[in-house]
Amino acid sequence: MFDKFIGIGFIIVALKVLFIQDWRGNWIDYRFSNNYIYMFLGISLLVIGITWLYSAFKSTKPKPQAEHTICPTCKQTYNFTDLKDGKCPTCDIDTIEIEHYYKDNPFKEDEKE
Prior knowledge:
The chain contains 3 helices and 5 strands; from the N terminus they run H-E-E-H-E-E-E-H. The chain is an alpha+beta fold.
């Protein structure tokens, strides 16, 4: 959450430098006169702010993988890490998470090992 405020802060300072051509802080007092260094500084701060804001909103949470899967055709169970692209090696079709399989087929619960 704090990263979002940092990105917004960079963008605000960049817009201030670009449009007002002035940078004032507690310990820094710059005035850009007739040179174009403010454009370089403003655009750099803007790019940093947008990049920071993008990385703050970008989701980095990995999708949880199913640990155990079952083939709906041959009823063989597999560890998800042993499969290639989540497909059954025998039938070459997508496997289903065991929890979802038994939730959708409650009558198969008796067959569960």
